[in-house]
Design a protein that fits this description.
two-stranded antiparallel sheet; eight-stranded mixed β-sheet; 14 helices; globular; 296 residues; alpha+beta; 12 strands
Length: 296
């Protein structure tokens, strides 16, 4: 029989933002699931699932893997995720998603059983909010610009399956090499890869075609070219500009393209002033107040 309860907690503060945190506990037979939710419960900005088993239950290797692994079910970097009044410029300068995930990973590091955080990287930004299919794949975009996903760059994430990781790294090393870029003539790349997949590109590039061609011919690798190319595209047009053709190109080069990633959680010592722990939720001591340590 399934049952659940919700615990509303004080707001949490990161370096630049304030968030509202809720924890939902669901009991389904011997399995206990804690949902750490930030933002609106119906449409949360972040949701992390942590599993446990009822006291006295026998623990085998499969169950140990369950309780050692938390899962990032959702993370969004949106203004409505924070309680503060902020400007667009402030929001653009300080990453909401990064600060929020830093806090949660720090929290998980204080739960001794949790050793890994898994996630399915389907992150994207909408180019046209009226069309749910018109969106830029951020995993693709990050690989194109840096040769790594956002989670690799910030948290040393790795694909879950080792064989996928070996093949993935071989493809990445090929993609970021100068030799690979030399295989593509600018006119061919521009017409057959960029414009063919996204005609809108020509409205940005054609007025400055000579300069962009020179840029292409003087940069050594695709990440170097793509990062320099960003400066030729107005900020409001970048999503629409890089959409479609970049996905087609990177998907043809990086095979397989892993979506399921693992972040290793490093244990954290308690800091002075106390920390909020998930085990405090399990005890459900009504008289005990949760404490927080502000992240530096």
């Amino acid at each position: 029989m399934e049952s659940e309860y919700n615990k509303h907690l004080p707001s949490i503060k990161t370096q630049h933002y304030t968030f509202h945190l809720n924890v939902k506990k669901t009991i389904n037979g011997e399995l206990i699931t804690y949902s750490i939710i930030v933002g609106n419960k119906l449409n949360p900005c972040l949701e992390v699932l942590v599993s446990d088993f009822a006291p006295g239950q026998p623990i085998n290797s499969r169950k140990i893997d369950w309780i050692n692994t938390a899962h990032l079910a959702k993370v969004k970097s949106l203004e409505e995720c924070v309680e503060d009044e902020i400007t667009n410029e402030y929001f653009a300068e300080h990453s909401v998603g990064k600060e929020l995930l830093d806090y949660i990973i720090g929290l998980l590091g204080r739960v001794s059983r949790v050793k890994h955080l898994t996630l399915n990287d389907e992150s994207h930004i909408p180019c046209n909010r009226k069309d749910p299919f018109d969106q830029l794949d951020l995993l693709i975009y990050s690989i194109a610009m840096y040769g790594k996903t956002w989670y690799e760059r910030n948290y040393n994430a790795r694909p879950k399956h080792n064989m996928d990781y070996i093949q993935y790294k071989d493809c990445i090393n090929k993609y970021i090499s100068p030799e690979f870029k030399l295989k593509y003539d600018f006119d061919e790349f521009y017409q057959r890869i960029m414009v063919m997949h996204n005609p809108y590109v020509s409205t940005i590039i054609n007025p400055q075609l000579t300069a962009v061609k020179t840029l292409y011919e003087t940069t050594k690798t695709f990440p170097e070219f793509f990062n320099a190319l960003k400066t030729y595209v107005p900020r409001k047009d970048k999503c629409r500009f890089f959409n479609t053709w970049l996905t087609a190109f990177i998907s043809s080069v990086i095979k397989p393209l892993p979506r399921y990633w693992v972040i290793d959680i490093q244990p954290k010592r308690e800091t002075r002033g106390g920390t909020y722990k998930l085990r405090q939720i399990r005890k459900r001591r009504k008289t005990q107040k949760s404490k927080y340590t502000k992240r530096p």
